[in-house]
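Sample pair:
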Amino acid sequence: MKQSIYMIFALFLFIFGCKEESKEVAEINKIKVEISVSRFDREIARANEKEIPKLKKKYPYLFPVQYPDSIWINKLTDTLQISLLKEVDAVFGNFQKEKDNIEQFYKHVLYYFPREKEPKVITVISDVNYNDPVILTDELLLIGLDNYLGPDHRFYQGFQNYIADGLDKQYLLSDVANVFSKKVVPYPVNDRTFLAQLIYYGKELYLKDKLVPFISDAQKIKYSQEDLDWAISNEEQIWRNFIENEYLYSTDKQLSRRFLDPAPFSKFQLELDSESPGRLGRYLGWQVVRSFMKNSKVSLRQMLSLKAEEIFKKSNYKPKQ
């Protein structure tokens, strides 16, 4: 009898949760967003020397004053630049699918952060600046399309695999969400613990759960599906390693390099290192924040401002064995 009551209660919570989620989805879909996209990459590809002044007037923020016009004129006939522009056009075409996804992203942004405004999107060539493939200002979203041609593209030959693997258009929206998160997720300036770093990245990834729920978890963290499956299968072992080595409250900067920074693999200094993906600390922080939000009633924006220790202690996080 007792078990039946628990089952009915659990079913009630599930149905109530589904209704709340459906209501949220309906409210998000009502929000009107119309993103303006300017294809600077195409315009510069079709330009001639006489059109450079017009482009400078239209896009002054893309033409630093310290560079003479000759720099841009020479680019018009540079064979590498011409080839790069052609490859971008072949991969992205009219950019319509990406535009639709960015609009859907900003519907979610405006639902959770109603004071935000959708920016004007400018697509550019960045000479494969993979460290900053997307730049967000108050009014502009600059996207370097040459950073998303696919990991096996000839322009990425010589790059380490873990870098090239992220240079795929399936991760473009994840990178857009990344730059937006920098605006709303406070960086733990006064807390130098490894735990604070874990939770910071966990907040960023949980934010993606809300802002880009229509992409996969692997795309959110920029893993292959195989890497994500490895992280899920070894989650308990990774967490136990962190606890046994008392990493959480450590201020050793090496921990960030070993478990948070982009790398070919995480560095446990164990046999499993070579099998592991990099940035596993971020994955664990994500799971802690997910557990906290599952067990609390705070809003998304309230959670983002909470301290790492409070989130950790109230999360009741226990990885599956």
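The mean pLDDT is 92.
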